[in-house]
Input
Amino acid sequence: MAEDFHRIRRLPPYVFAEVNAAKARARASAEDVVDLGMGNPDSPTPPHIVAKMIEAVQDPRTHRYSMSKGIPGLRRALAGYYDRRFGVRLDPETEVVATLGSKEGLANLAQAISSPGDTILVPNPSYPIHQFGFIIAGASVRSIPYTPDDEMLRALDRAVRHSVPKPTAVIVNFPSNPTALLAPLEFYRELVAFCRRHDLFILSDLAYAELYFGELVPPSVLQVPGAKEVTVEFTSMSKTYNMPGWRMGFAAGNPRLIAALARVKSYLDYGAFTPIQVAAAAALNGPQDCVQEMRNLYRDRRDVLVKGLKAAGWDVPSPEGSMFLWAPIPERFRQLGSVEFSKLLLARAKVAVAPGLGFGEHGDAHVRIALVENNHRIRQALRGIRAFLQGDNAGPAIVPDAMAVDAG
Output
C-alpha cells in the first residue's frame, strides 16, 4: 500500500521545488527577495473588465451553474477576435470551447485524445503541461527541437518514420514559454503541410499571442489554409488582459478535437463562473488600449533588464515576444546546472528565477527570468545580480529539502 499510484509514478520530482521552498524560507526570515521566477502578471485587470464582472455578479441568475463549453456570447466573442486578429472564421458552436485557462484545456484534451501506447511529439524545453498533460493521460512523449525551423521539421520527419506506433500529435508554442521564440507564418505553412500529409494533429499553445515587441506579429496556425483539418489552438486571457487568477482560456479549431474536448469537460466541470465569462466577453469585444499598454509595459521592463544584465556582465538575448528572458547561465557557473545556479542566485543576490531544467533536460543550461516586477524592483534585482557576478560566488548554495509549488 505504500507504493505510489501508477500515474503519480510517471511524474518526476518537481524541479522547481527546491528554489520555491528556499524562496518561501527567505521571505519567512524577512529577506527581501525579488521574485522573477513565476510568470504571474503583477498588473491589475483593466477596470472596465472588473466593472463588467461586478455588474454581472449582481444578477442572481448568474449564480447558477454555467455552461461547460462556455456561454454563447463568450464563444462568439472569441470567434470575433480570431476574425479581427487573424482573418480566421470560426463557428462558435462547433469550433470554439471556453476552458479554465489554456493549461486545463490542454490537460483535458490530452485525456480526450490519447491513451497508453500513443506517442506525442513535444518540444524540449517547453512548458511542463505540454509534456506532462499527456504523460498523466498515459501516453508517451518524444522530444523534438524547440526552434521553429527546418531542424524541428526534420525531427518530425524522423519521428514519423521511426516511431511505432506513429505519433498522434505534435505540440507547438510560439511565442514560447520558456524560450520566448516566435514562429513566422511560413513555418506554420510547412508544419501544416507535413501534418496533413502524415495525419498528425497540431496542438498549438498561443497563450502569448499579444505579447510581441518587434516587427513579427505572432500568427495563428489556423491562418494556414487547411490547418483546421488537423489543428486545435489554445489561447488565454491571463497575459493579454492581466487575468491570470480568473482562469479563462479557449480552444479553437478542428471540430472533431473540439467535440472531444467538450465531451470530456462536460463530465468534469460546469464551466467558469458566469460573471467571469461575461467579463471575458467584454474584454474581447471592448476597447483594446489596455492590450497595447500591457505590451508597452513588458517591452520597457525587458529593455531595462536586458541592458542592466549586460552591464553586470551577463549577456542575455533580448526576446521579441512573451514575458520571459531565456537566459544562458554564465559560463563560469554553467557546470552547476540550472537548479544549483538558481539556488545560488537566490542565496547570494536575493533574486528568484526559474531553473531551465524544469522545462526539460535540454533547458538545463538556462534559467527563465519573468518580467513580473516593476522597474524599481528590477533595478534592485540588477544591483544584487551585479554584486553576485562581480564577487567570488562560485561556491554551492546550501538549501534544505523543499516542497513543490507551481512555477507558472
